[in-house]
Design brief:
The protein has about 200 residues and is mainly alpha-helical. It has one domain: Arp2/3 complex 21 kDa subunit ARPC3 (Orthogonal Bundle), CATH 1.10.1760.20. Helices cover about 70% and strands about 5% of the residues. It is built from eight helices and two strands, in the order ααββαααααα. The mean pLDDT is about 85.
Amino acid sequence: MHISEGVLSGPVLAGGWAITAVGTAVGLKRLDYDKLMTVAILSAAFFVASLIHVPIGPVSVHLILNGLIGAILGYAAFPAICVALLLQAVLFQFGGLVVLGVNTCDMALPAVFCFLLFGPLLRAGGTKQAVGAFCCGFFAVLLAGCLTACALALSGEAFLGTAKVILIAHIPIMLIEGVLTAMAVAFLAKVRPEMLAIRLAG
């Protein structure tokens, strides 16, 4: 779901950078720096997962893991995802530096939203925890697809078709990420339950 350089309009790029700047600042301010290792590990997981692309028509799909990142890191999802996308842009030319703000916003904003919406379920245990984790994984990808599609649609009518394909192509990914997030949260609840209750300073 990386948007390439030279595609988006100026106002969309500016809006993406503004949201990313605010989100990253808030994430760093509220981050418990004792959890930096967790942030680094999840940022690396995001980096690796989104390198494996499966082409579907004019777009390609890949695992995103933003729902899992949001479930564990909360607001710190912004700096974690921003660093991973920056490295991808510099090392592999995925996306680009100019569109880094929009790409980060598209991935991190849904992660934080799902953390706020489903966080109480994630820490409830049992069936509620499983439902909350699945919803985190599913809706984070859905919202990321919607934001990416909106960014393309707002940049010109020529991209409306691509925007629709992006949403349709990521439906299987939504389901897969929902299941993966539920499995990961269930595992962490057994071996590292404190990771599901990260305290964000501030």
